[in-house]
């Protein structure tokens, strides 16, 4: 049974935003890994709405994180890579948003869960091999 956020939804969204911002800046994640599951589970939003909200929220998060990373003298941002990936990510986002309109929320949730699971296993495998 979903958690009832109706008592104080603004507080839940404020906390979710804060946690997503922290995780986004620390680990380069937040929208998909944090926001989408919380919005679907706790706020009972359909998968498509949660994904759309997450993408919209990530615009200012990415901008702020990018500025802070750029200001860090220990981090080199190669703007050639940024430019190349920006062009292709715009094309990919357009394709992905089109595909979302063709599949059900249930299919998206299942695919998303599989993606998170596989990525989690891959990251654990990499971290274990790095500590040997």
- Structural class, please? mainly alpha
Question: Helical residue percent?
Answer: over 70%
Number of domains: 1
Q: How many β strands by DSSP?
A: 0
Q: Helices and strands, in N-to-C order?
A: HHHHH
The stretches of 5 or more residues where confidence is low (pLDDT under 50) are none
The end-to-end span amounts to 42 Å
Put simply, the count of helices is 5
Helix/strand layout:
Blueprint: H1 9-27, H2 31-41, H3 47-71, H4 79-100, H5 105-130
Helix pairs in contact: 1-2, 2-3
General description of the model:
There is one protein chain. By secondary structure, this protein is mostly helical. The protein has one domain. Helices cover 78% and strands 0% of the residues. The protein is built from five helices and no strands. α1 runs antiparallel to α2 and α2 packs antiparallel against α3. It is globular, with a radius of gyration of 17 Å. The model has no long low-confidence stretch (mean pLDDT 86).
